[in-house]
Amino acid sequence: MSMPIAPAIPTTPAERLRWALSDAWVVSGRELIHWVRNPVVILNTLLFPLIMVLLFGYVFGSAMRVAGGGDYREFLMPGMFGQTMVFGVISTVYVVAANAARGVTDRFRSMPVSSFGVLMGRVIADMLTSTLDLVILMLCGLLVGWRAHHGLGSALAAAGLLLLLRFALVWVGICMGLRLTPEGAGAAWMPLFPLTLLANTFVSPELMPAWLRIIAEWNPLSATVQACRELFGSPGLSGGSWAAEHAIELAIGWPLLITVIFLPLSIRRYRRLNR
């Protein structure tokens, strides 16, 4: 009877990268299969932002005003895009925590699989589903009157900034998920909800008290939303502060800083599980 032979461990940087990317592709395929086979998760993921658009756009929208004037639903949509990217962390935290609790993570760690590849597989799967969420939400925005006034190129640049924020937050979700139980992961929305409210997502910072305006303008989510409003040509652009006038730079800088911090923390935590 023949015995299975373990693959040779790569030694050169190029071989390690190829090994990690191959493992990441396999793991991401596994995660996407689980996602497709769970229709309840798909419905929750896709319906929640649509419900929020209808609720804020038509129910609360009549009582909202935009600094400088303009249609509130056009002001709202970039904020909804950003909030959806942030709320995606909830699913990341829960899935990572559930995999760790069910022994899936330990099984990966016992196999000749790249640790970076396993985590990157989770990132790829989350980025693909987030891209689908964003496309559906943009189509919903077109139905309620939102438009990208500065053309396709600027719209794609704004979408890129939104996905860059999501990429950074996936690493935050992985780091949290490796430290929490599934029950604790279920409460991940609690710190995220005020984070999305203390920003320029639903209300212009100019309409807030001075101390709250500073917090809202320096919120990483606000930078991405402000940059998207500039690129889309949406109403309600803030001004008067360094953060508001350099939103595009901050929309790139904040996610890069978050990634630099949480990517190595996630890998370190993954390698040190149960130690």
Automatic annotation (TrEMBL):
Annotated Pfam families: ABC2_membrane
The keyword Transmembrane appears for this protein: yes
Tree of life domain: Bacteria
Coiled coil start-end: none
Protein biosynthesis listed as a keyword: no
Residue span(s) of domain ABC transmembrane type-2: 40-273
Keywords, sorted A to Z: Antibiotic resistance, Cell membrane, Membrane, Transmembrane, Transmembrane helix, Transport
Biological-process GO terms, alphabetical: response to antibiotic
Cellular compartments annotated: Cell membrane; Membrane
Membrane topology listed for this record: Multi-pass membrane protein
Major localization class: membrane
GO terms of molecular function: ABC-type transporter activity
Segments passing through the bilayer: 40-60, 80-102, 123-146, 152-174, 247-267
Gene Ontology CC, one term: ATP-binding cassette (ABC) transporter complex
InterPro entries the record matches: ABC2_TM, ABC2_TM_bact-type, ABC_2_transport, Nod_factor_ABC_transporter
PANTHER family associated with the record: NODULATION PROTEIN J
Similarity annotation: Belongs to the ABC-2 integral membrane protein family.
Protein name, per record: Transport permease protein
